[in-house]
Amino acid sequence: MEEQRNKLKNNDWEGHWAPASEWCDVCVHKFDYIIKLENEPEELIFLLRKLGLYDDRKMFLSLHNNSTLSPSTMDEIQAFSNLLTSRQKQFLNKFYYVDFEMFGYDNLYVDN
After folding, report:
1. Predicted local distance difference test score (pLDDT) of residue 63
2. What distances in angstroms separate CA 103 from CA 1, 16, 53, 54, one per listed residue?
3. So what's the pLDDT on residue 6?
4. What is the pLDDT of residue 36?
5. Do residues 13 and 7 lie in contact, with contact meaning Cβ atoms separated by under 8 Å?
6. DSSP-assigned letter for residue 104
7. Which of 97, 73, 14, 16 lies closest to 81, judged by CA?
8. CA dihedral defined by 16, 100, 67, 77, rounded to 10 degrees?
9. Which of 8, 64, 67, 88 could bond to 84 as cystine, CB 3.0-4.6 Å?
10. What is the pLDDT of residue 49?
11. Cβ atoms < 10 Å from Cβ of 74
12. Omega before 41 cis (within 30°)?
């Protein structure tokens, strides 16, 4: 995690870790849908139906895009969060602050 933290801090991130606010300007563009991939596949299936692509869903719901065919549970998210130190959580809360605000996420709970 420390190596990843240093990459983020130095703007040396891969696209996967970049804050959405860096590449997805929701203030300029009008989006019809914003889906949260932690709720995949339900939200992705909803979007595929809306776009008329439901018949092609196997292409989107495959191992190639890391779909587990079930959403992350709160227990899984909490278990991952528990692996992080308070310092790491503080960093992530600050780094992704704009994303958390734009997309309605809570900050990670930080022990004092």
Report:
1. 46
2. 24, 17, 25, 25
3. 66
4. 79
5. yes
6. T
7. 73
8. 110
9. 88
10. 92
11. 8
12. yes
Q: Determine the Cα–Cα distance for residues 18 and 52; give it in Å rounded to an integer.
A: 30
Neighbours of 40 (CB within 10 A): 21
Mean pLDDT for the chain?
78
Predicted confidence (pLDDT) per residue in 32-83, tens digit: 888 877 777 788 888 889 999 889 887 777 644 555 556 567 787 788 888 8
CA dist., res. 83 & res. 13, Å (int): 21
Q: What does the longest C-alpha to C-alpha distance in the chain come to? A: 50
Residue for token digits 């959405």? 20
Torsion angle in degrees (nearest 10) through CA of 80, 82, 85, 91: 50
What is the model's pTM?
0.61
Token pair belonging to 91: 């960093």
Amino acid at 108: L
